[in-house]
Specification:
alpha/beta, Rossmann fold, 8-stranded mixed sheet, 11 helices, about 20% strand
Length: about 280
Amino acid sequence: MDSGPRTKNGLRTTDGPSTKHQAPSTKLRQAISTAEGKQRYVRRLFATIADRYDFITGFLSYGQDRRWKRRLIQLAQLQSSDRVLDLACGTGDIVFAAAPHVERAVGLDVTHRMLQLAQRRITGHGGTKTQRKEFSSVTPCLRGLRKGPKASFVTGDMLALPFPDRSFTVVTIGYGLRNVPDLQQSLREIRRVLAPHGRVLSLDFNRPSNPIVRPVYLAYLTIVGSALGFALHGDPDTYRYIPESIRNYPGAAGVARMMEQSGFTDVRVVPVLGGLMAIHLAKG
């Protein structure tokens, strides 16, 4: 039985002995310091915050989140013959934007609750008539890439994608690479399912290299995240995870190098919000 210490929202904050007297940031850092610990923490975290995920992303981005995702879609230069896989799809923003323009769009997320919320958006809870026509119900697995509804949602892990090799011509990711416990393995899986000359695009936070900007940026996210976590979940660590994950992230330049090492070509970085965010583009 898992009897480790937990926060009020049910997230276990350490893999070791009790940390009752440790500062919350220390407990959080311990929890995500290993690949296994980060995987467990992230899965519990997103299951907890799923119902407030859209609000939080909009709040922390000053309402710019969906504009950035539209920019990603523009950069993808989608064609009617494209088969799109959106990883860490959340409640479906990128899938919703892509599906009307392509042959198929598939959204994958490890948090099934996110996919249930995506379904609500297309069954009378905020979805338009076009969305309700274009999107299928949440499904536990993909039943063929060329059959059935034009788009679908799949519960799955970015480290072991449940698709055959070369299944998609475009892979998109919104805030996903920073959260995987093994970034290199995730990139290998993306390349595996990407068709030859396919495109990959990833939107995420950047880790500013400027020694003056970086601490200010992380301090802002820590303060605001702590306040939101306490107000919404009774636990300030809930959204402190964002700046903590950025501290351990290789940043836009580091991710670009890893993509090249994984065999991607034509890798480039498009700065967003003055470089505080970034969109990676590459070919398989």
